[in-house]
Design goal:
The structure is a homohexamer of 233-residue chains. Chain A is an alpha+beta fold and 233 residues long. Chain A is built from 4 helices and 9 strands. In chain A, 29% of the residues lie in helices and 29% in strands. In chain A, a hairpin with a 2-residue loop joins strand 6 and strand 7. The longest helix of chain A is centred in the last third of the chain and has 26 residues. Chains in contact: A-B, A-F, B-C, C-D, D-E, E-F. Chains A, B, C, D, E, F: InterPro entries: ExoRNase_PH_dom1, ExoRNase_PH_dom2, ExoRNase_PH_dom2_sf, PNPase/RNase_PH_dom_sf, Ribosomal_Su5_D2-typ_SF, RNase_PH, RNase_PH_bac-type, RNase_PH_CS.
Chain lengths: 233, 233, 233, 233, 233, 233
């Protein structure tokens, strides 16, 4: 059994699609997310002529990613959970990019979940950042993280509270059992980008909060190393 | 000028609509939200036959609530921000209710913003709780907070980081200037229900997080008193 | 009991929202409508370059305005009744404005029903005219009704036929009992703008028509006085 | 030139579609409407178990019915004009039927405009009534107008005010020139079902109203005879 | 009983609508389709500035065209069958037109089915071609088939396999009984434009394919003669 | 360069998703389709109580599957091409299954295109059949192709006409250059399930048709062998 302070096994395959180098197959335990970053030489209407670019994300679960099968989102109404997740991914990625240095270009990061076993939103951020970094390198020749539009890296992890025990990187089973679920998004340099702690039908106190944040920092540090390894290949 | 650790002026008018005692006009500075709780003697399909009830919320800004006028949401696609807010309100209210004690009944809390000047989501939670409490009293005769379905009260407040200064209860102007915006939802007994800290194009560290949480607790304590006064009338 | 030729008690509160002077809280018995007029310095595409402006209206009932709660209109399909009512409000307001004198500007009059007890469409017209007049005054300095874009005032009232008895200003209970329901919209100077007489599963003859029109004229004259008082403050 | 108190040439072809005897091709000048009544052995959910039936109408203009071509209504949003018209047709037809005598059956009257030259809504009512009467005869053997579910016949006509002149049965050209447009729906026995008088950017007085109603009555009487002839074949 | 290699009775009425000469009422047995071609002096955005035109088709069945009544397509989602059919009609018509000779103009061919008894898609192509040819003659003066934008004529017919017997021009009853249904679209000069052979829950072999194609060619030749007669009037 | 009668390199990976054995990653040249078959113990409403099952398919291209990025289908309107393709996949799979032997169960075959380089619909059928066969084996223990619900196998391939040359298995480049594009779907035993030959702005004659069909048969025979190998592992 996995220790409660250890990440699931992570495998990262960059350039998964021949047609797009900025495509990353990100596996974290049984969770599999295909992240692709696409560069477009335009910006949304409300940014036109401002000399800066834009980064956005779209998130989707394939019907076969869950059991029982998830119905395909074709009603014209993206469900609330999906909307929240893709907004979170977009904000997280934008926290580490200087949009002015991107010029009037957009990058869309698509995160399509092929198999879901908990942690799909944090996998999307961690894997999506790698796809983004590759796309930025292509858009701005000679750039790298910290040297060009990207000011830092970003990664995300979940922590949970089950009774009084704190656990890192919740898979579906752990997530279902947790009283409180917290997603922490941090930069490679150790600053918070976003904290979302939620106790559906439960609450938590200061001590528990402190424990969860401490564990999250450890997880983020581990993920940051994996990102650096993959990007330096 | 308002001190940075002080709430805006709050006015609460319960029974605002003659046709529904569980209607609350909640004012917080210039922000005005009409919260109404409606009891329905049925539950959503996925809860039928489980002997428990449901609480949900809907949030909407009236077109005239902002300047320039906000377009009415009639495209069939509720925008992402609205979806996030109403899911947050619903989760927050459900954190302080024992749904089994509600029987197979639903309560919908509608939060319609008549005038928006920052803090509409936190006003919706704080005012919406009062409407909910009145509706619960009607549904379960003789019940009150702590004695019946409601296990505690819940309130919400925003805190912001501007440079290195921390501010309580952001109005629109303060919110626009803030680098980091954090919404804190807590029970009357002082436990966290939800923490959402977001730095769009900014980040924060441990110290700043601690300062923001401390200030939020003070604000929640003040709001809890106001809720108790109104409910004991 | 209210005499059959007398209006319900009317209360008008202009400047209800601090952020918009052209906001009017209109109460007529238990019916409460918030009317706000918003000026936009553009016209719909089909009017561009024609040197004239546009006035339109949107009507909506808040979920808490009725008991049982009215479902929020979020399907992307505005229901037929709502469409009819907002088209009627728009036509009525346009009947008393010289759109050429408005320049290429639009005014949207939002009528949001906070509490519904019959007569919401006529309240929206009568109250909406006041909001419109304030917005026009702001758009065209020095203008007033009869002197500037507004050529006249407009007000609306319902009359009903119950058996052979004619009644003015139907509340929900009277409206439900009526065999024939007629909405009459007239200018302050006493000309018809629109007559809509409908007998769902009932019919009416010439005499009954004459009686209903006579009573409606009395009601319109009373409302016109109230509008003038409020606008001359 | 047609006298101002005379109807356009009317041609009625019942049983136009071999597959449905209750199909009527109704021509009025150049306006052509195909009216078909379809019987369904069920009622809308809100009428189930009440022992009465329902009559409703749908109205649609074919793309080739106007020049330039009218875009097909496939956006999922039926436009406001269409909604108003089909609600009017439905109410008018229901005014002459005793729904209890229909049993728990529904009749849908479809009015599809093949060619539009003004007066499509009144043609739909006048022609739609014939289709309805045939369908009722089939549903309730031995019934006829006045003897069975149908208590009377119903027909509709437009009248217009152009300057101070009053005109009957407006085609597109006359309708465009008219200051005030009034649609009058009456029973065969001469009672009003609905009056809709509208002055878009114009108003009218008592005398003008009286003249318009008088002319409308003449037109309705003429149409009623044509309906009786067709139904007695 | 109709021989298995003979078409149903075809009747073609050009100029059916006074307002548009390019309107054709096409009857084939009990199937009735109203085809109207409308010329628009613009092209879709993706063709702008390329010096060529566009031809497209829309297909629709009226509610009264089938028994039981077909629900009107107002959900905003055109059903799959309708989409397939109108794409097929458009491709078939474009196969015989030189879009460069049309200039930057569009022609929309609307095919509205008034009565459906099998073969509505093939009737739409055969009748739609006549409407198109009339519209092209109007758009490009002096042009005719083979001399101007239209390089050839096009017609369509169905053939079916029932057991081992092959049948031409399936009406609803024959179509329901057929194991394999094949639609063949050919030019007047005898070349294939499109072949669609489908065995829902059945399959076919080379011999059967050969027989079906042979019979289809005979049917197309007969239809081509009828088209030529109508266009030479 | 690949000979014109040879398939692209095909790679099939069954059980690609740990959570569902009936998941197949199908590669054909650069085209990659993830096919997953999901069993549901219910049937669509129109099949209830008839003692037979249902097989349907859904097709989708991921945004990153093409360059430039394909917009995600979230408008509520599935585009016409997608609708046609998924209807074709469904019909093709149903041609080789005895739905009565499936009992009242449904199988949904999802075909999600990860990378698109031509032939995605034929890959979806060929790969989708393998996923279907695995799901059927699980649903009906002891069954295999020809022994149980599946009466035969099914595969699909495209052939094209470029000038007078015929080519097998068109990739994107070949497809764009082809004058005529034909998709042929056949059973493992060599019978036609569906033929769709389309010449957008081109036509073809009998000889060309014969050549295309001959080449398609060779391709189908090769694919059938690959399917058998994979299923016998």
């Amino acid at each position: 059994m996995r220790p409660s302070d250890q990440l699931r096994d992570v495998q990262i395959q960059r350039g998964y699609l021949e047609s797009n180098p900025a495509s990353v197959l990100y596996r974290c335990g049984k969770t599999i997310v295909l992240c692709t970053a696409s560069l477009e030489s335009s910006v949304p209407p409300w940014l036109e002529g401002k000399g800066k670019g834009w980064v956005t994300a779209e998130y989707n679960m394939l019907p076969g990613s869950t059991s029982p099968r998830k119905r395909r989102d074709r009603s014209g109404k993206v469900d609330g959970r999906t909307t929240e997740i893709q907004r979170l991914i977009g904000r997280s990625l934008r926290a580490v990019i200087d949009l002015h240095k991107l010029g009037e270009n957009s990058i869309v990061v698509d995160c399509d979940v092929l198999q879901a076993d908990g942690g799909t939103r944090t996998a999307s951020i961690t894997g999506g950042f790698i796809a983004l970094a590759i796309a930025v390198e292509q858009a701005v020749a000679g750039s790298s993280v910290g040297n060009g539009p990207l000011t830092d890296s970003v990664a995300a992890i979940s922590v949970g509270l089950h009774g009084d025990e704190v656990k890192l990187d919740l898979d579906y089973e752990l997530d279902s059992a947790a009283d409180v679920d917290m997603n922490v998004i941090m930069t490679g340099s150790g600053r918070f980008v976003e904290i979302q702690g939620t106790g559906e039908e439960a609450t938590f106190d200061d001590d528990q909060l402190a424990k969860m944040l401490k564990l999250a920092k450890k997880g983020i540090a581990d993920l940051t190393k994996l990102q650096q390894q993959e990007l330096s290949r």
